[in-house]
Amino acid sequence: PMFIVKKDQRREAYDRQKVLSGIHKACEKRPVPLATQDQIADDLEAMMREKYEKEIPSRVLGEFVMQRLAKIDQIAYVRFASVYRDFQDVSHFMKELKFLLVKPK
């Protein structure tokens, strides 16, 4: 089994459903097919098997999902980022939006 190393150094077993739940919430009411959302989780798991043996930092998971969502749907990306990065106020949203606007596609 793969373990996720949280920010506070706790370890918990990888849970595909937890990852998919976050992706589904970010993509809610967006034109992102479920098959595409499932593919993000499949690609994440393939990357985990390829690059990590037993433990993977939660930061790596979050960044991987955000990179994929940014290519698929920018609204879903911002939604996921707002939870993952724990935006505290509008300035955090604005910073992320500015990043999206200047980022090459």
What report would you give on this structure?
With 105 residues, this protein is mainly alpha-helical. Helix content is 66%, strand content 9%. It has 5 helices and 3 strands, in the order ββααβααα. The protein has a 3-stranded mixed beta sheet. α4 (74-84) packs across α5 (90-102). The protein is globular. The model has no long low-confidence stretch (mean pLDDT 89).
Topology summary:
Elements: E1 3-5, E2 11-13, H1 16-27, H2 34-51, E3 55-57, H3 58-72, H4 74-84, H5 90-102
Question: Nutshell version of this structure?
Answer:
The chain is mainly alpha-helical.
Any descriptors?
105 residues; mainly alpha; three-stranded mixed β-sheet; 3 strands; 66% helix; 9% strand; globular
Gyration radius from CA atoms, angstroms: 14 Å
> Biggest sheet, open or closed, and with what strands and sense?
3 strands, mixed
Q: Number of helix segments?
A: 5
Structural class: mainly alpha
Q: What general outline do the C-alpha atoms trace?
A: globular
Order of helices and strands: EEHHEHHH
Which runs of at least 5 residues are low in confidence (pLDDT < 50)? none
Total beta strands: 3
How much helix is in the residues? Answer: 55-70%
Distance, first to last CA: 35 Å
Strand order of the largest sheet: 2-1-3
Say what oligomer this is: single chain
Mean pLDDT: 89
Which strand-content bin applies to the residues?
A: 5-15%
